[in-house]
Amino acid sequence: MSQKQSVAVIGLGAMGLPIALNLHKAGFPTQAWNRSPGPAQIAEKDGVLICKDVNQINAEVILVTLPDLPQLIEILDAGLRTALKPGQFIVIMSTTSPVEIVSFAKEMKEIGVKVVDAPMSGGELGAQNASLSIMAGGEESDFNSVKPVLDAVGKTVLLMGPVGSGQLTKAANQIVVAINLSAIGEAITLARRAGLDANKVLEIFSGGLANSAALELRRPKIQARDFPAGGKSKFLLKDLHFALDAAKSSETELPMTSLVTQLYAGLIEHGDGELDHSAIIREIERLND
Question: Which of 114, 147, 170, 232 is catalytic?
C-alpha cells in the first residue's frame, strides 16, 4: 500500500480547520499554518503538526483556504516562497478571480510548482462532514495527483477544465446561491408583510419545488432573523463581482446577477457584510421600510 501524500493547510478558518482535521483523520500526514493561535491549538490537539512560520511548511500538497489570492501572495512574500520546491502542488480552495488564478499558475510554473484551482461549495457543514463539492481546474495529470487529497474532504470532486475552470464554475455556483437566497428573502418579506406565518410558508417551500439546499441550510437563520456568519455576505459580493467580470470578458449578459449584486452591495453598505449571506432579507426588508 503506497504511503499517503503529506499535506499542509494554510488558513484554519471556518473551512480550513475542519479540512485539516479530516485530512489527519483520513491518514494524511498533515501540517497547518494559521495567523491566529486559537484554531491552530485545536488542530494541534487533534494531531495536526502546526508550523509556527510559513517557511517551515514542507509538504507535497499545499491546500490554501485563505479568503482570496491577495492573502496568499502576502503569505508567499512573508516566507512561503522560499520554502517552495519544484514538484510541489498548490491547491487553491479559495474563491478567486478566474483571470488572476491563471496568471498566478503561470508564475508558479516558472519555479516548478504546479497549481490546481479547486474552490469548494457546501459551507461549514460540508467541510465538517467531508462532503464538499469541489470544482477543479488544472492539468489532468496534476488533478489526478491531488485527487486523493480532495477525495478525503469532498463528496463530489470533478475536473472542470484547465486552470481557472474551477473558479468559473464557482462563480456560476455563487450566482445560483445569491439569486436563490434573494428570492427566498423576497418571498418571506412578502409573506410577513401580508400577515402570513413565515414559518408555515417556509415549511410549504421545503415540501415542494421551491425547496433547495440553500433553503434547508439557511432556514433556521431566516426563521430566527439571526444571521451568524456561515458564508459572509461580503465574500459573496466579491464572488458576484468575479462572475460579472467573467461575463464581461465572454460578452455574456447576466441581468439577474447584476440586480442581486446591487442588493448585496446595499447590504454591505448598511454594515451587514460580516453576517451570513442569507441576511440579504434584511436589505429587502429595508427597501420596504
Answer: 170
